[in-house]
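Hi L.,

You mentioned the student needs an example of a multi-chain input paired with its predicted structure. This one should do, with 868 residues in total across all chains.
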Amino acid sequence: MAFLEVNDLVKDFGGVVANNHVSFQIDQGEIIGLIGPNGAGKTTLFNCVVGYHKPDSGKVIFKEKEITGFKPFMTNREGIGRTFQIMKVTAGMTVLENVMVGAFCRTDDRNLAKVEAAAILGFLGLDSLRAYHLNELPIASQKKVGLARALATQPELLMLDEVASGLNPKETEEMVDLLKKIHRDKRITLFLIEHVMEVVMPISQRVIVLDGGEKIAEGLPKEIVKNERVIKAYLGEKYAKSL
Amino acid sequence: MIVLDALLQGILMGLLFALVALGLTIIFGMMDIVNFAHGEFLMIGMYTAYWTSLLLHIDPLITLPASAIVGMVLGLASYYWLVKYLLRGPMIAQLFGTFGLMLFLRYLAQFLFGIDYRIVQKGLLVGKSLTVGPFIFDWTKLSAAILSLIAFLLVYLLLHRTKLGKALRATALNREAANYMGIKTERMNALAWMIGGGTVGIAGGLIVNFWYVYPTVGLLFVMIAFASVAMGGFGSIKGAFFAGILIGMIEMLFPVFGHVIGSDFLGPHFKFTLVYFAYFVIVVFRPQGLFGWKH
Amino acid sequence: METLRDAFDFRDFSKPEKVGFVIFTLFLLVFPWLGAGSFVKAVVIQFLLFSLFGMGWNTIGGYGGQVELGKAQYVGIGAYTVALAMVWWKIPFWVSMPIGVLIALGYSFIIGYPLFRLKGHYFAIATICTSLVLQDIFINWKLVGAAKGIELPIHEHPDFLYMQFKSDTYYFYFIMALFYVAIFYMNWFRKSKLGYQLRMIKEDEEAAESLGIDARWCKIKAYSIASAFVAVGGGFLAVYNLYIDPYSVMDLDLSIKIALMAMLGGAGSMWGPIIGSAFLVPLDRFLGSWLGAHKGLIGVDFMIYSALIMIVSAYQPRGIWGIIEQFRKR
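Structure written out for the whole complex:
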């Protein structure tokens, strides 16, 4: 039985079909990459799963429970955590407090939440940032805090929206290592949305490709890079330009 | 017949409500700011018309340019001295900022003119009425409604037919893109406040012909304007027009309805309560406005 | 137990805050014996009352970041419940006040449920509308005295059950007790799960939802807590003034003042509402009585007051507490 199952999902924004009958499955413990050019419908698909959009038709099933149309806080309580591509950078709460809010999802006890949050910050190597506010941090650290916050809710599936955007190659490498660590030590299934193929290829065990709202390919990374349709739809624009 | 009469009277009143709501919706569409002082702009427009006509011994209807100019200056001054700074802060600061402006203008008026209720007593049209078949229209209301319609059309044309209007609407749609195309967005903001102030000033000059003016008169009208803008969809000009008329009709029909069924709880006291209630229901169940237009 | 410990635990405050708090408490305790005139006493009582209102508002408005401008309706519910219960059935204050709070709680859930579908300006204006509708109903409702309001029967002898005293001192200690209950509550609240969740909602509602927080439900809860606070103050107002009408306890101006004091002092901080009230209430009263005595200067007090509002909104939206913190950071 699949861990996460998306069945025949359709999302239509007033005539613009963002997702057209998309289906796929994820098994527990996998690292899956979802790629596609700009406007392929990746973010919409993502939002339909975590509950920011309600799909027009189709089903989302998580751990054998249908969660189609659940609100974001409900999907989170089911065990799906997420990060944001662009975080709102605010000055109202410290890093520790941010992560504590995540931990409060599973406990009512403040001290427990604090211990939990501190542990996660330690796990991600963010101990030194505890007292800072988000607006005082560089982008790479902000993204890690977003990751820590989501991890604090103890998800079984972590959905990552463009974790590498805005990062330089070195920071990207660090982030990839961190994701591997999360996957290895916490045994959390990862689902990455990436625009940049170079990020997703080295860590994904399987890749799903969207284009024009439809799933055009699915398979091992090394198969995907050779897939004609993918090259045409995705890499095509890039190569066409360079030629 | 009584219903038809109420409907027609309601349309006349509604045209004025629409003009009041126009400035509010333009400013909101431009920069997502709700101007709480809008009703006080109206009150100042009313006082301007009242005093110029009284002191210069001219008909209150001719004082409209004065009201318009005072309204525009007020709008500009508010923008450059207050709103510009408020825009940098959080929404709560914006709300309180314009709220402070509202209180300031209200008590300034009270300080200058006292709390007396004043009304224009002399004038070409005051007290005269037009009889069309069974219907009797006050000339003051009729002319105010017509002039309000004209003002509304002029602003509509300004926004939709001129280059300036296009720049204004472009800024409202996408501030950054407008900025890249060389539109001075700050100036567009100021312009929105100027048009907003000017139109509501005119509305004040028209309303004072048949309505008492006193320092707190603005609250009632601004709540009606909020309701109109909410019904029409925040930022929509067409929406504000039709919603204003609709509210005018509700306001006139409601007492008639109450009278017919003989209920005290539907008495004239509650006609504005209904407007507030309508606002609440509409924004809760149809946040995009009654007509669903988006700006 | 944990809750109680949190409420009385002020250890995480800085030293100047702790010292200030102790001095302030001592001052309040001896205040009635300092020989202040009845006007000054009334001002201090009003300061405590508005601090109570402000702390209530601070839960939803400050920590939750929702621009709530309809608190006056809950002052009205609290005040009318106490007044009507006393006039109609001679129910003592100590029974009617909790009933008023319960009614306010129930009403706030009913109103809050549709209200918190809204956000931003829509929400702010809608809160005003709900308050105006209730005020209009009371203005026209003959059974509850309509626009004339209600006078509470004055007892010949001081009566603790009905909270009627000859001397302001008793009222002072009573509102002071409520004020401290509110402080301890807020001290717990800011450290509670709900407090953290509300702050997250204020920071970034989308992110808060992704962390398993039911934002709408959290806001409704905070709104109801705020309403309960305010209804307690409303009940006090009824026995203190012995007269209420829809204009004095349900006016839009009252809603604004409540929110404004909290914001001016510093919304979302522990001391903000108290500082704001300590600043604005005396200003309001002294300016009012001083300028009111001069004919022709009516309204100038409000002009100064509103100019202050504009300046603070434009330059330091985080209020007086924001300014203090800015200086402390240097």
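You could point out the following to them. Residues 83-154 of chain A form one domain. Residues 169-186 of chain A form the longest helix (18 residues).

Best wishes,
N.
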